Amino acid sequence: MAAPKKEMDKLEETIKKCTKCALHGKRLHAVPGEGSSKAAVFFIGEGPGAEEDKQGRPFVGRSGQFLREMIRTIGFKEEDVFIGNVVKCRPPENRDPQPEEIEACYPYLQKQLEIIQPKVIATLGRHSMARFLPSQTISKCHGRIYKRKDGVYIFPLYHPAVALYSPSQKEILLKDMQRLPALLKYIQQEKG
Q: What is the domain-level CATH number for residue 127?
């Protein structure tokens, strides 16, 4: 396999040209994701919003600024994680992604995970969580840790957007997020 960075660059170009579902017709930019091609943590949201569509970058609107602030607060650097979404183009009016849109984009997400090989997949909200824990609800599993058979950990979190509207949810999200460094430390000890 080619170097991870080269593979990610190639995949990014493919995503930017994608026409697999109707979302491509109204997008300004596809939003492949950004960060390290060797990230230990891959944050996965639902889909791009209006600001993300304008800039072609994930999580740059208000909720994204909060996510990036939380990442820095727990001692991580944005460039050391990977931030992406289940769907790579903005659903109109920020509606939920349709099943066929999710299915069209899922091979891209799978390929990103294959290239990056993160130790932790931190899902942001119910749509990304449902890809990995389909029988769970976000209200019951947020902040819990699930280990897959392949050794990758799934760490469901509320979507940062909820923190903008609910102070109690913001506290829960901050508390859950603060568990992430300890999880990575545990994984390093487990493998070492």
A: 3.40.470.10
